[in-house]
Amino acid sequence: MSENKKGHSTAPIGMFDSGVGGISVLREAVRLLPNERFVFYGDTKNAPYGTKPREKVLALSRQVVRELLGKGVKAIVIACNTATSAAAADLRAEYPDLPIIAMEPALKPASLLHRDGVVLSLATPGTIAGEKYAQLYSLYGEGVVSLPCPGLMEFVERGELNGGGLAAYFQTLFAPYREKNVEAIVLGCTHYSFLKKSIAAFFPGIPLLDGNEGTVRQLRRRLDALDLLAPDGAAGGVELLSSGGEEPIARMKALLDAEL
Ligand code: DGL
């Protein structure tokens, strides 16, 4: 790790996802931590994670963390709810000295908006089947309808953030709830943050909650507590990597810079 005189670290922060979804977290991180350097790894070759068995996602996540450690990172952000569910606990046990910050579907903030209607919680099949989700659900699941969304992240990977195919997907998914009192929608997969406009077209004015800002605030708190934040005036930046070659990197870059 590179250190400056004040004891702060200018080493980069590693962040990963199965693909471009984690760029929605990276956007927030760049906004809130402009002095930090980030290395983002999209495991595009092995995407999607959300329909793979837990053990497989754990093995893939371990591999990505090794890659990022090779880049000298001072912390890891698991910018993927599926990988968090499958791997965060094991990775924390395996690297006790490495700050590992992870995602959580926003059921807790959604519970504050729940009265007598329903909260829709969208996530991958892997996240919804996981132990971590079951724990969250037992605490904050009142009124929550969990909707596994196989095939949805693929729209974002293809760069289809709107259009007929996506509208048809949502038409089917949301049909049972159009006439219900929907109080909030949880976006429990980092890819879905890029679909806010398309989802809002079905539920105008309904709060859409992702965990992105909360995760980045948690990252800042952890680094601050460990005296690992980059000093004021340090030059921030982003390095994008992908297991799928150059083409996914171009798509990541486009999403990083996109006006949403
Ligand atoms: N972006 C990921 C998440 O937050 C996973 C998408 C996938 O690979 O299925 O769950």
Concise summary:
By secondary structure, the protein is of the alpha/beta class.
In words, what does this structure look like?
The structure is a single chain. The chain has 260 residues and is of the alpha/beta class. The protein folds into 2 domains: 13-103 and 212-257, Rossmann fold, CATH 3.40.50.1860; 107-209, 3-Layer(aba) Sandwich (Rossmann fold), CATH 3.40.50.1860. The chain contains 11 helices and 9 strands. The chain has helices spanning 23-32, 54-69, 81-94, 107-111, 125-129, 131-140, 152-157, 164-174, 196-202, 212-225, 246-257; strands at residues 13-17, 37-42, 75-78, 100-102, 118-123, 144-148, 182-187, 208-209, 237-242. The strands form 2 sheets. Strands 4-3-1-2-9 form a 5-stranded parallel β-sheet, with helices on both faces. Strands 6-5-7-8 form a 4-stranded parallel β-sheet. α3 links the parallel β3 and β4. The longest helix has 16 residues, at 54-69. It is globular. The two termini are 35 Å apart. D-glutamic acid is lined by residues 17-18, 21, 47-50, 80-82, 124, 127, 153, 189-191.
